[in-house]
Amino acid sequence: xxxxxxxxxxxxxxxxxxxxxxxxxxxxxxxxxxxxxxxxxxxxxxxxxxxxxxxxxxxxxxxxxxxxxxxxxxxxxxxxxxxxxxxxxxxxxxxxxxxxxxxxxxxxxxxxxxxxxxxxxxxxxxxxxxxxxxxxxxxxxxxxxxxxxxxxxxxxxxxxxxxxxxxxxxxxxxxxxxxxxxxxxxxxxxxxxxxxxxxxxxxxxxxxxxxxxxxxxxxxxxxxxxxxxxxxxxxxxxxxxxxxxxxxxxxxxxxxxxxxxxxxxxxxxxxxxxxxxxxxxxxxxxxxxxxxxxxxxxxxxxxxxxxxxxxxxxxxxxxxxxxxxxxxxxxxxxxxxxxxxxxxxxxxxxxxxxxxxxxxxxxxxxxxxxxx
Amino acid sequence: xxxxxxxxxxxxxxxxxxxxxxxxxxxxxxxxxxxxxxxxxxxxxxxxxxxxxxxxxxxxxxxxxxxxxxxxxxxxxxxxxxxxxxxxxxxxxxxxxxxxxxxxxxxxxxxxxxxxxxxxxxxxxxxxxxxxxxxxxxxxxxxxxxxxxxxxxxxxxxxxxxxxxxxxxxxxxxxxxxxxxxxxxxxxxxxxxxxxxxxxxxxxxxxxxxxxxxxxxxxxxxxxxxxxxxxxxxxxxxxxxxxxxxxxxxxxxxxxxxxxxxxxxxxxxxxxxxxxxxxxxxxxxxxxxxxxxxxxxxxxxxxxxxxxxxxxxxxxxxxxxx
Lengths: 372, 322
Fold this sequence. Notes:
Number of domains of chain B: 1
Shape of chain A: globular
Radius of gyration of chain B: 20 Å
Number of helices of chain B: 13
Helix content of chain B: 55-70%
Strand content of chain B: under 5%
Order of helices and strands of chain A: HHHHHHHHHHHHHHHH
Oligomer: heterodimer
Structural class of chain A: mainly alpha
CATH topology of chain B: ABC transporter involved in vitamin B12 uptake, BtuC
C-alpha cells in the first residue's frame, strides 16, 4: 500500500532533499567566510541573467540529460551503471573518428553519422560489463568502475599514439573539419528574430537530448520492452516467471544506457570543443547519477534536474571567477544531492510517511465519528 | 637489470603498495561485515588533507595522523548512518562520500591556506621520515644481504611497517577471535548472528569504524610520508585500485598483501619503462600498465581465472524480522 500520495512521492521528497542539500551548502559557504545570499544571487545572475549565461547552462544541461537518462534507464532495470563517464569517453572517440575520417557534406548528416558512432561506441563499452554480469555474475558496479579507468587509459593511448597530429605535443586530435561544426543556439534562433549570445556553446545537440528524453519516456512507459524492463527492475523472480529473460533485459537496458552516455559526445566533443581532448567528459558521467536520482529516473524529472545541474555548473563557474569560492563547491552540492536523494532517502521519507499516515488516521477517525 | 635496480624497484613497489594495502584491509573489514564500500577513495582523500593540514599547522605529524583518522572516521560514520541505520543504498552512499571528500578538501584547503587547494609543503617534524633499522648502516656494504636489508627493508616510514603488521593482525582478528567470527558471520548471514543474540547493527558499525581508521592511516601516509603535503585529488584512484586488490585477494588478508604488492610493482614499473624493456625485450605502454590492475580485476571477477565470490550478505541492509 502506498502511504504517501503520489505528488508527495514525486515532488515533495526530492524537494526536501534538495532543500537539505541547499541548507548544508549555504552553511559550508558561511564556514569558509563568504556570504551565501550574495553567492546565490551571483549564481542566478551568472547562469540565468543573460543569454550568454543561459547558453552555458543549457550546454551543461545537455550533457547531464544524456548521462542522467543513461543512469535512469539502468535504474529501471535495477542496474547501477557507474560507467557513464567511460562510456561518454568512448562516445567521444566515436565522434572523433566519424568527424575526422569521413568527408561530410553538411553538418546535419555529420550529426547523424557522429551520433550513430557515439552511441555505438558507448553501447559497446556498456555491453561488456552487462554481458559479464548476465553470464558470469560479475557485479556490474565494480566492472563499470573498472571500465571507467580502462576507458581513460585507452583514450590516453589512442590520443597520444594514434590520433595526435604530427608535431603536436598536445594529447588531442586535430580540429574537426568546418562542415562538421554544429550550429549553436545563436545560429538557430537568429533566423527567428531572437537574439542569443554568440559566444555560448549550447548547440543543436540540445534538441537531440530533448528528443532522447521523449524517446525514453515512450520506451519506458508506452512499449512492451519498457514494461519488461520495469517488471524486471521490480522483481527479477516475477519477471522470470512471466517469461522475461534476465539476460535480454540486462543487455538491452545497459546497451541503451551506454548509447545514451555515448551520445553526450555530440554535445561536448562535436558541439563545443570541435576536437577530442583528454578528460573531455569532465565528470559529467558521474553527475548523471545525481541527475537520475534527483529526477526519480523519470525522463521529465531528468530533464528538470539536468537543467538544475546545468545552472549549478554555470553558476559555480561564475562564483569561481568573481569570488574566492572555488569551483569545487559544485562538487560538494552534487555530493549532498546524491547523499540526500540516494543514500539517505529513507531519512527524508520515514518522517514524511509517518506524517501522512497520521493525517490519514485523523481523517478516517473523524469520518467514523461523523457516521455515528 | 642488475641487482641494485631490482632492489630499488622493489623498494618503490613497497612504498606505493602501502596505501593500497591499508585501504584494501579497510575495505576487507567493511565488506566482510556486509557493507560494500566504494568510498575508500573519498575517506583516503579526506584523511590525506586533514593530516597534512593539521601537521602543517601544529608542526606535529602525529597530531596530523590523528586528525586524518578523525576525518576518515567522520565519513565512515556517515556511510554507517546511511547504509546501516537508514538502510540506504551502500553504493550510492559511497559515491556521495567520494564527491564530498573531493569537493570539501579543496574548499577547506583554499579557505585555510589560499594556495589553490593545496597545503604548504611539510618539513621536519610535520612529516613521517624514514626509519633506519638497527644495523642497517653497518651491513650496507655486505654483498647481496647488505643492500637487501639497508635499502629494501630498512629506511621506510613507521606507517609502512604498521601496514605490514596490520596484515597478520587482521588475519588473527578475523580468524582467531570471537569478534572476527561474528564479523564474518554478519557478512554472510546476519539473521543467524541476530538469532544468537548479537547486535548486527553494532557489529557492522564496528567494522565500518575499523575501515575508517585504516583509511585514515592510508590517507595520512599519502600526504605526510609518500609526499610532503596535500594536493588536490591526490588519492588519484588508489581507493579503487585497493577495491580491485580486495577482489583480487578474494577478501582474504594475506592475499591482500600479495595483491597490493603486485599492484604496487605495476605502479613502480610505470615510472621505469627502461626496466621492462630490458626484461621482456619490448616496449610496454605506460597506459597499459596503469590499466592492468583494472583489467585483471575484471578478468578475476568474471571468473575466467579463479572465481571471486563476495560475502553473501554484502550490499543488503539487514531488516530485523517483525
